[in-house]
Write a structure and sequence with these properties.
The protein is 20% helix and 27% strand. By secondary structure, it is an alpha+beta fold. The protein folds into three domains: 2-62, RNA-binding S4 domain (Structural Genomics Hypothetical 15.5 Kd Protein In mrcA-pckA Intergenic Region, Chain A, Roll); 73-162, Pseudouridine synthase (2-Layer Sandwich), CATH 3.30.2350.10; 164-311, Pseudouridine synthase (2-Layer Sandwich), CATH 3.30.2350.10. The strands form three sheets. Strands 5, 6, 7, 8, 9, 13, 14, 15 and 16 form a nine-stranded mixed beta sheet that branches. The protein has a four-stranded antiparallel beta sheet with strand order 1-4-2-3. A three-stranded antiparallel beta sheet has the order 11-10-12, with helices on one face. Helix 1 packs across helix 2 (29-37). The termini are far apart.
Length: 311
Amino acid sequence: MNFIVDKENVSKRLDVYLSEILKDEDITRSYIKNLIDEEKVLVNGAKVKSGYKVKLNDNITVEIVEKEIENIVAEEIPLEIVYEDEDIIIVNKAKGMVVHPANGNYTGTMVNSLMYSHKDNLSSINGVIRPGIVHRIDKDTSGILVVAKNDNAHKKLSEQFKVHSIKRKYVALVKGIVKEDNLTIDLPIGRSARDRKKMAVTDKNSRNAVTHIGVLKRFYASNVTLIEAELETGRTHQIRVHMTHLHHPLVGDEVYGKKDPKFKVEGQMLHAKYLGFIHPSTNEFVEFDSELPEYFKNILTSLENKEKAAN
């Protein structure tokens, strides 16, 4: 991985800067310190200490070393399962929960919880790190996920994701007033040339990405819009990148936008509300829906009250 320090991050400690940049990769600050100590992190080609204060345009390279582990620790962590049968588990993931273990973060994830409740009933296709995991959503995105309980179900679900036949709808709160009632964003997404941690709309080394947007509610008094986003493709950070490109970053998204003190939230306000697909055994179309989390509903109530007061 390669990162160029921008003016907003000047003078931050190297370990702090990297822990913020790599937040969505589920990499801990202690793991980053180990990488620095092992000279897996270089600044302008030279080794430095964890406390090094980064400078404008510093070129930082990070070599992520995959840790070999034999088993994931089963942990009794609360998990909201909204449906389950012999083939699939539908989970309503909470905001702040990581889907599966990754470098420097091997506990507290959805997989750790599933290993406690379903240890011998998860597909093996993705190995010990991601048993049963067919797809993922970001740590700070809440909502519906499907988990495969056996390899046959996993293969059939993966094929649907591959051909984009899975129906996925998200609800998001974005900054600014979206003028169109409905629009389709058809713009390719790839790694940002300036910041390899981020994705961006780009023609270089990118893949096609299509997002269908519908406005649910405009809050003029607060200058924000509630939208529904339906994915036709499923690129990394797709909704976040597309909306930022349109100058409507998601509220709470500090990776692609800026922190707004008006909204006391950690991470983007994005909820995977709906999932529909062909069941791997019955071959019938099934669909699942989940309510917005309480914090999301509370903010919408506050916005509604402000809107009424303004009128």
